[in-house]
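Researcher: Please translate sequence to structure tokens.
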Amino acid sequence: MNVAWPERREDVISALVVLAAERPALDGAGRDTRFPDLTNAVHWLVDDTPWDLVDPVTSVGTILCNGDEADVIRAVVAAVVAVSDRQGAVASDAAWFGDRGWCEVRRLAAEALTCLAP
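Model: Translation complete:
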């Protein structure tokens, strides 16, 4: 793999693992108890990158290796942002996992993970 920011790429891959996984056990407040948890996964994929505002193709060479990776990332980020728009940033993890679009987030994250995984 030849990217300038391999550590950021590893964060993105870790986020995709969380997003693609089965719904975890939640604590009494409806929060994900894993690490990284849902909050960190969304933070690493959306907040720590410009991909909700700028096409991921701009990250080819820094975090992503090619246009195929940009395509799958674009799709998963759009799905995560759609859930965020419906649920809000302060909603419980249970609300996010219960969102009507969550199965699409999981499917797209798994697809992206397959594309980015070494």
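Researcher: Any highlights?
Model: The mean pLDDT is 95.
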